[in-house]
Known about the structure:
By secondary structure, this protein is mostly helical.
Amino acid sequence: MVFLLNPPVQDIALQKPASLALQKQWLLIGHEGVRVNCICPGYIDAGLAEGYFQSQPDPAKARVEAGKLHALWRIGKPEEVGRVAVFLASEDASFVTGSSFVVDGGFGSGLPPK
Length: 114
């Protein structure tokens, strides 16, 4: 798995590998009925990057350009990440553990920006 660093969110990006390592340690208590999974979001329109966008000469253009970093050519919505969390908390995922769900619209796919 590859995590790309981008200045406005590099601190968050650095936390992802650490979270995955912690997830593996928590798997040791799986026999107690605890399921451990990880959601790895990309750019999500939840306000985290808003300061960065507003600091640019053309905030709207900066937002569009950030969207083009994704294979889907857009920034994700909070509810798209939320749906993954709801699935993981449901009985439909009762045999899912030790998994990482990348919800980044293809940001980490290694595709060159357009």
